[in-house]
Amino acid sequence: MQLIEKYIEIRKRTEHLCKPLQVEDYIPQPVPFASPPKWHLAHSTWFFEEMILKKNLQSYQEFHADFGFLFNSYYNTIGERTFRADRGNITRPGVSEVYAYRAHVDEKMRELLEQNLSSELRELIELGLNHEQQHQELLMTDLKYMLGHNPIFPVYDSSQNLLADVNLESGWASFDEGVYEVGHDGGAFCFDNELNKHKVYLQNFEISKSLVTNGEYLKFIEAGGYQHFDYWLDEGWSWLNENKIQSPLYWHKINGKWYYFTLSGLKEVDPNAILGHISYYEAQAYATWKGLRLPTEFEWEIASDSFSWGKRWEWTNSAYLPYPGFKTAEGAVGEYNGKFMINQMVLRGASVVTAPNHSRKTYRNFFHPHYQWQYSGIRLAK
Fold first, then answer.
1. Which one of 15, 130, 134, 366 is at 20 to 30 Å from 350 when CA atoms are compared?
2. Is the pLDDT reported for residue 334 higher than 90?
3. How do 205-208 and 172-175 pair as beta strands?
4. Quick count: other Cβ atoms within 10 Å of Cβ 20?
5. Phi then psi dihedrals of residue 265, to 5 deg
6. Which of 382, 208, 232, 212 is nearest to 304 (CA)?
7. Any idea what the Cα angle at residue 299 is, between residues 346 and 339, rounded to 5°?
8. What's the rounded Cα separation, in Å, for the pair 76 and 89?
9. What is the pTM of this model?
């Protein structure tokens, strides 16, 4: 696929995800970590304007003088920005103006993409497209958080119960101790946190071919898993009690039955479906209760060809740290990953809302251990 075709396809998909929304859905921000759909639409556009068009298209005129301040996310190199928790307060510009902004940038990007581009510029555009795909997933998880905290549990799309999938495999895959290679070789696109390919030593281990299901996790709940401190890390136990956590996110016990919110509305929990919306703390506590553990990210990568993955982001027992030889790039692009390598845990795989063609076994996702709002699940190891 030509780069210009890829650009058009990815940009259109973001807007397609917003088609079921009403205009009121574009604006609310119920918590600081979940951004409004309107902000995602504008920020992913800002990336192309700020990082690419302003520097590489001589005739380019920025769409609006305030948009750099409003829609910068965390790039200190570029300048001042609005506070993250205030994104929901940006009622102006309106939704229609944000779509006009996207159309303006898309027109100029198509003009740029018709030129003879350097390899460096093509790589930067590729980064921008992968950045937009990341925001497509965040848009869906943030939107679900907003709708899932609406007291009437509104339907986004009646055909989208993205929690209905089940395991197709069972049993365990075994691996001998030894020295293995992990990481991306850089031959195709990857983020800088996947580089460099290097060797790791692993003890022999086994890893489950299936993810933990709702029914399996229900047994943990019914056995008092959320009431026994000895299953939990100390920070996890504090988080659980401070926030009165008693179940995975979006689960509700109504008249003695468990229900969960899906993008197609409130549904009765399917015991055979794969568990989702679990924090690292919950994943670790469940593994401890089972007398097992979570795999490290290196075990997961080495074993990933032995099972199917991609339905849930899978918590690993690895802190998010740089690989050997990691070097932060100069300028704003260098702020993309490196500065977040502290107090976060690695997730591997992908989820049912990950953008098409945006997953690979070396991909390193990362979040703080208390977050539940991603489509995250549990694969056990021993």
1. 15
2. no
3. antiparallel
4. 14
5. 105, -175
6. 208
7. 25
8. 21
9. 0.96
Whole-angstrom Cα distance, residue 361 to residue 298? 10
Q: Which CATH superfamily is domain 172-377 in?
A: paralog of FGE (formylglycine-generating enzyme) (3.90.1580.10)
Mean of pLDDT values over 208-237:
98
Q: Can you read off the two tokens belonging to residue 20?
A: 């079921």
| Torsion of Cα atoms, 35 then 36 then 40 then 46, to 10° | -90
DSSP assignment letter at 53: I
Percentages of the chain per state (helix, strand, coil), in multiples of 5: 40, 15, 45
What are the two backbone dihedrals, phi and then psi, of residue 62, each rounded to the nearest 5 degrees? -60, 150
- Res. 201 pLDDT band, cuts 50 70 90: very high
What mean pLDDT is predicted for residues 358-370?
98
| Model pLDDT for residues 311-323, shown as the tens digit of each residue | 999 999 999 999 9
Question: 300, 333, 246, 327: which is closest to 51 by C-alpha?
Answer: 333
Q: Where are the alpha helices (DSSP H) in the chain?
A: 3-17, 37-48, 54-56, 67-71, 95-113, 119-148, 214-222, 234-243, 280-289, 297-303
The contacts of residue 105 (CB under 8 Å, 6+ apart) are: 45, 48, 49, 53, 63
- Token digits of residue 119: 């390899």
- pLDDT of amino acid 335: 67
Domain definitions of the chain by residue range: 3-148, 172-377
Q: List CB contacts of 142: < 8 A, sequence separation 6 or more.
A: 34, 35, 36, 37, 40, 373
Report yes or no: 211 and 341 within 8 Å, Cβ to Cβ: no
Domains 3-148 and 172-377 equal at CATH topology level: no
Q: Which CATH number fits domain 3-148: 1.20.120, 3.30.200, 3.30.1330, 1.10.20?
A: 1.20.120
